[in-house]
Here is the input.
Amino acid sequence: MCYDFCKRVTQVDARSHKAHMQGFTLIELLVVIAIIAILAAILFPVFAQARLKAYGSVCLSNLHQMGLAFEMYTQDWDNVTPPAWLPTSNPDGTINWNGIQWQVMIQPYIKNVQIYQCPAGPATLDPYSGLAMSYGLNSFDFSNGRNLSFWYGVPVSVVGDSSVTIVIADSLGGAYWTGGGPTFSVPVPYVDYRHQQGFNALFLDGHSKWQLTTTQMNWALNYPAY
Here is the structure.
């Protein structure tokens, strides 16, 4: 009798061990895979959104550093902002019309060309400076032919409100044509709306900010005095 009982116990243990060795069933595996897929569908957009926000923060930091350099250059040049570019002289005395560009003019104050590239957007290789640029200078000119725009470099005193006036912004048009002009339209020409359907901009007073929309006042120097 003891022999029969021990035999049955051994058989039960053997079947239990065999079932344990078989692992998950197909249905169980499918359930696990479905749960993982659901979690991935929930979390991946969250991770992507977090990455885009991080890109936006880096971009704003880039613009802030450019703003500091822009301000130091302006102070060194009697409160006149750097123009889009200036012609220079060749060794033989002829004029080099490609000259020196605004991003090169402020570079001594930054000493870092990487900040010209936004992690969220394209960087256009500028054929004049040789630098990859994701940002462009405000090129709007509403002055009716008086050449009052950042394109030419202007005294800070002619700017109506530096806290609302954009100097540099995310650009699709390279380093010089952000905004275009002389007429204002929405979406703003050559501005790259690459950050959550908006763009980052540097203002003349030195702060950088994400913008969903802008008005002509943000691009003109002394609007509506023109």
